[in-house]
Amino acid sequence: MEMWLKEVQIDGAAMTYKVNKTIVTKKTRYQDLAIVDTDIFGKMLVLDGIVQLTERDEFVYHEMIAHIPLFTHPNPRKVLVVGGGDGGTVREVLKHPSVENVVLCEIDGDVIDECKKYLPQVSCGLNDKRCTIIVGDGISYVKEHKNEYDVVIVDSTDPFSIAEGLFKGNFYRDIYESLTDDGMLVAQTESPFYLPDTVRKVFNDVKSIFPITKLFMAAIPTYPGGYWSFTIGSKKYDPSNVDIDSIPEIGTKYYTRELHKACFVLPKFIRDIIGEQ
After folding, report:
1. Residue at which a domain ends, from 19, 39, 54
2. Do 136 and 253 have their domain in common?
């Protein structure tokens, strides 16, 4: 008997994947968690029925959300990752030798535990001595830490349920205050095809707080629409104006120095969504 995972995020569209076996399922304090093995994409982490990552394409998301800000900031020493309990973003952050400490603040400790067991190639950075793991609410954590971080990365699930507060303007203002004088924020900001209103709202919220705000894109096959947005808010450094010749090779599969510039070149329909000409 064939088993298929059906992911439904919005009315009228779904993504389906053939499942070879279910590795683990559990109801955590916050959500339904599953790790399954699929025909095409290998192991998948699924939360509340929505695919968070797959072995085959996770590198795209994790490289782009980490390396764009960390190769923009000239000396990122302390980094906060809100969410991202799978550890993929931490893995990429730790490729930067200037980073002295990365704090992972994940609300659901079961995500961390299960990814350590079943997705070790993604979660490997969580065992690094430079990584500090905090199981707790990222919204509260940010409020309690002022002028501390060079880069804050919001590696959240989609804007539903427990992650809804991570897409609100007040949260971005608290992040602004948690950053050093030349600090930077980057957040995943959803699909311009399926959730254009979310893309627009987050961009405008960040733009109302940070003097430099930019949107960039990446192609991620297992995310709805296959074309994903990220928003950067920066106090000082323009990520689209980096000297790419100074960017070293650090062992990536998607991110390149040329792509660092190219990802900020937006199609007209996305410029229209965010009101940029």
Report:
1. 54
2. yes
Q: Which domain holds residue 20?
A: 3-54
Identify the pLDDT of residue 163: 44
Cβ contacts of 77 within 8 Å, gap of 6 or more? 98, 99, 100, 101, 150
- Residues 64, 50 share a domain: no
Looking at the fold, whether 155 and 87 belong to one and the same domain comes out as: yes
Q: Which residue has the higher pLDDT, 45 or 13?
A: 45
> pTM for this structure?
0.95
Domain identity same for 99 and 204: yes
155 is catalytic: yes
One domain, residues 86 and 216: yes
pLDDT, residue 276, reads 85
CATH of residue 106: 3.40.50.150
Instruction: Say yes or no to pLDDT of 24 above 60.
Output: yes
Per the structure, how many domains does the chain have?
Answer: 2
How many Å is the maximal CA-CA distance in the chain?
Answer: 58
Rg (CA), the chain: 18
The pLDDT of residue 70 is above 80 = yes
Q: Are 14 and 36 in contact (CB under 8 A)?
A: no
Q: Which one is catalytic: 86, 108, 150, 155?
A: 155
Q: What mean pLDDT is predicted for residues 192-217?
A: 95
Q: Where are the beta strands (DSSP E) in the chain?
A: 3-7, 15-27, 32-38, 42-47, 50-54, 78-83, 101-106, 131-135, 149-155, 179-188, 212-219, 227-234
Tokens encoding 70: 């960390």
Distances in whole angstroms, Cα of residue 271 to Cα of each of 43, 149, 168: 35, 30, 21
Q: Once rounded to an integer, what is the mean pLDDT over residues 229-239? A: 98
Q: What is the CATH number of the domain that holds 31?
A: 2.30.140.10
For the segment 147-176, the average pLDDT, to the nearest whole number, is 77
Across 197-256, the runs of DSSP E, i.e. the strands, are 212-219, 227-234
Tell whether 125 and 217 lie within a shared domain: yes
